[in-house]
Amino acid sequence: MDMNRQEWKEKAAEMSGVPKDVAMGLPILTITGTDELCVENYRGITEYTDQIIRLQTRCGQIKIGGRKLEVIYYTNDEMMIHGHIRTIEYQT
Questions:
Q1: CB 69: neighbour CB atoms within 10 A?
Q2: Given its phi and psi angles, is residue 22 left (phi above 0), alpha (psi -120 to 50 degrees) or beta?
Q3: What residues pair up with 81 in beta bridges, in sequence order?
Q4: Are 37 and 81 in contact (CB under 8 A)?
Q5: Which of 22, 34, 65, 92 is deepest in the core (most CB within 10 A)?
Q6: What is the largest CA-CA distance in the chain?
Q7: Is the sign of the CA dihedral 69, 73, 75, 78 positive or negative?
Q8: How open is the CA angle 31-42-47, to the nearest 5 degrees?
Q9: pTM (2 decimals)?
């Protein structure tokens, strides 16, 4: 059986019963309507304008597009974005 590192981590998380987001540090996005987005497990902000917010995560980048976007607060592992959210793109 030839598993790459990602597959091995997923299998280990599954077998141990630990949620994948915890075991692998995967991002969690919780969107409320079109005006609020909570992002957990991000590594940093790589682009920030009122129309685009681009975040770095362990598995690539997440690009949030919209109008009047604003980071309301952020901590080391969570942030809240407000504004009119039009798109969310995953870029690996």
A1: 20
A2: alpha
A3: 37, 71
A4: yes
A5: 65
A6: 50
A7: negative
A8: 85
A9: 0.78
Phi and psi torsions of 23, nearest 5°: -70, -35
Cα four-point dihedral sign 47, 48, 53, 59 = positive
Q: Which two tokens stand for residue 83?
A: 């504004």
In 3D space, the residue among 56, 50, 58 whose CA is nearest the CA of residue 84 turns out to be 50
Query: At residue 23, what is the residue type?
Result: A
The one-letter amino acid at 28: I
The model's pLDDT over 36-69, given as tens digits with 9 standing for 90+, comes to 999 999 999 999 999 999 999 988 999 999 999 9
